[in-house]
Amino acid sequence: MKTFLLLAVLSAAVLRAAEPAPLRIVAARASSTLEPFAAGRAIDGVVTEESRWSAAAAGPADFELELGAEATVAGLHLFHGFDAATSIRDVSVQFWRDGAWQDIPSANVAGNRATSLRLAFDDTVVVRTTRLRLRVAATNGGPAVIKEILVWPATPAGVPPLVAAAAPDAAIPRIYLNQSGFNLGQPKRFTAPTLPDGTAFAVRAAAGGPALFEGKLAGHIGDFTAFEPAADNREFVVVAGPHTSVPFRIGRWWLERVSYANAVNFMVDSRHYVGNWRAECRGSFGWRDDHHFGWELHSLVAQWLSNPSAYAALPRQIRYEAPGETKRWGALAPYRDDAPDLVKLIHWGADVIVTQRLTHEHLKAQLAYFLYAWPWLERYLPAQNYAAVRDFAFAVWREPKCDRVYPYDESPEHDLLALKTKLGTTKGSLPPGFSVEPNLLLWQVAQREGRADAADYFAAAHRQAEWLVRNLDWEDPQTTKGQRMSEWLTVTGLAHFLREFPDRAPPGIAAKLEAWAAVAARRAANLWDFRKLDDADRWAPTGPQRTMWNEPGNVVGLPAALLAARPFVRDPALGARLRELVWSHFDNCFGRNPTGRHFSFDAPREIEGVEHGWYSFHKGGIGQLEGARFVLDGAPKQQHYPYRPEVGDIGWTEGWVTFNTAFNASLAYLAHAETKLVLRREGDDLVVELTAPVNLDPAKIETAEVAVTLGSAPAISLVVVESAPAAATLTGRMRAPRGVAAEVAYGFGYLARRARLAP
């Protein structure tokens, strides 16, 4: 990496073939240092903000250079500061001669605001020396920062013209945070990589006024979690040193407010044949560019189970389209017109698999989600749908052969009851333990159907989970972040087993999940609260080609795994840290990353409050996704970390269905984590209080449906209502006889929340 930056940033941008090379500098010393930004970083040939020297505090500072041998010097190139507001303002240069420091009259600068300086020495004095010293008298703000110094020998050509190294986007402030906003009651953190620890910061109203919250930076991180303003839709900014952040809001369920509709919009648009690009897309089935590992029903069903009322309240966009002669879909009868779009998408995903009789293990595994969720889908779908999916799924579940050859296929065979011991590559097409949850779901379906082979599905899930506990090494990055956007399936599958069947789960799952969490937390101990690939200097997966790897799906899918594992973490400090990491990874997507950009190119016009979207988007490709809404186009690459914004738009950028389904899964697990139910008696009434990301419109009173069960009677629906717009809870009440047990549930199945009252 260092060699690459030297050639690409320094040599190509500054040196020219006809000009002399700069002199070798063998050592550098400074009057003070802000660790870890040592003096040697300013002479390493790397012109980046991460590879810099920084003084320990604002004020005068000296920086000394030792040359390899005595030489006659013509001048310097000096790359410094982060922007005009932090550049070196007043500086002079001296050289060592006859046992003392001598001034160089022509190398005296005052009132500067540029971040690159060409200091040519005139012939007032001949600068022949082994040592130089820069004396920084003042900066335009903050401690002195030097990114790189080049010392030029005296030649007839003189000091070469200055060509500035690449600079970060000037429009993006050096306070990196979630550009859109933060949820009330959740962590609120930002990164200020150019400011020293101890720098004071303040949260203020964007319109001006006094500080509303104050703190100090630690590890380049500012934390204003304790700032809980009234949900009045004001915009805020963070001010630290010379920098002011983009404006943002803080509200109840803010992330859900700006994400739910967008998440569904992407899935609506990106469907194959009926989306917003209807031509043939190779390697695609239900969604363009889905291949066999899109995990669509895995995530769409989870969204429905976790927060049905919120998704049911979204606008309806989809109308059923009859299939053409090719019969790419149509095995399932049409849904009701008034079905929520999320239900229509679930129907679509199952319809394509059954109609085309797709037997890849990942595709037929998706059908378990449809069948499991049938009791909570059937109000919108004909009974024929269930029968068609059931008959096909059970017929092919054990089939080891596949219907066709798939690109990127890593599956040795396709019997979903078989033990899966192959570890997938960073392509993401074979995450460990992918069969655990589908087998658990189909076991419950088989029990519901009274099938004689029901126990086989549970046994397969149990055997697979046992293997994972014994064999997965979380220290090996390939078992975690190395699975890229598909990693979340491993952890959520194990957590599902333990959460739903604690008395029957294989021993060791809880310890295994806690060990995974500990590794994730350890690798996230950095200025971005970002889980790295390993414990060394690998931040994101990389490879020999520029297409390896674009990883927005790993970042936005990690919260699903963190939220699934967190209930089984015994260490309170580790549990609290996982909560921070959930939000830091959502924030990373929304701009708290070294580029300061949201992962979606179109974010500024699609997401409330976002100013800076991804650099570019991919035109064409298998998925033809550039016209779809809410495409997660790209994420910072290895070269951007820990802080190299000047690298710019590098590596591969292209949306992928599987990036968005990972985000969908995280939204589902977040809803499950945030939902709370209270059930109490008031006289002859039962009172239900629901706290959940349902009330997303601060301008209207919203409702949700919960299911109340009295004794052994069938569950009945109860509508709960906000007491006022943007209220914290929704409340409902009903008459209920005393002496009867009561239960209330919100959501469905394995992602429901419940509360109970004894008789």
Provide structural commentary.
This protein has 759 residues and is an alpha+beta fold. The protein folds into four domains: 2-153, Galactose-binding domain-like (Jelly Rolls, Sandwich); 181-251, Sandwich (Immunoglobulin-like), CATH 2.60.40; 254-671, Glycosyltransferase; 675-757, Sandwich (Immunoglobulin-like). Helix content is 26%, strand content 20%. It contains 15 helices and 23 strands. Strands 1, 2, 3, 4, 5, 6, 7 and 8 form an eight-stranded antiparallel beta sheet that branches. β19 (703-710) and β20 form a beta hairpin. α3 (296-306) packs antiparallel against α5 (341-355) and α5 (341-355) crosses α6 (361-372). The protein is elongated and about 100 Å long. Mean pLDDT is 93; it is low at 1-18.
Keyword list:
4 domains; Immunoglobulin-like; single chain; Glycosyltransferase; disordered N terminus; alpha+beta; 20% strand; 8-stranded antiparallel beta sheet; 759 residues; 26% helix; Jelly Rolls
Write the layout of secondary structure elements.
Elements: H1 2-14, E1 25-30, E2 53-54, E3 61-80, E4 88-97, E5 100-109, E6 116-120, E7 128-139, E8 145-153, E9 181-183, E10 189-191, E11 200-205, E12 211-216, E13 221-223, E14 235-240, E15 243-244, E16 248-251, H2 254-269, H3 296-306, H4 308-312, H5 341-355, H6 361-372, H7 383-396, H8 436-449, H9 454-471, H10 488-500, H11 509-523, H12 552-565, H13 572-589, H14 603-606, H15 657-674, E17 676-682, E18 685-691, E19 703-710, E20 716-722, E21 730-735, E22 742-746, E23 753-757
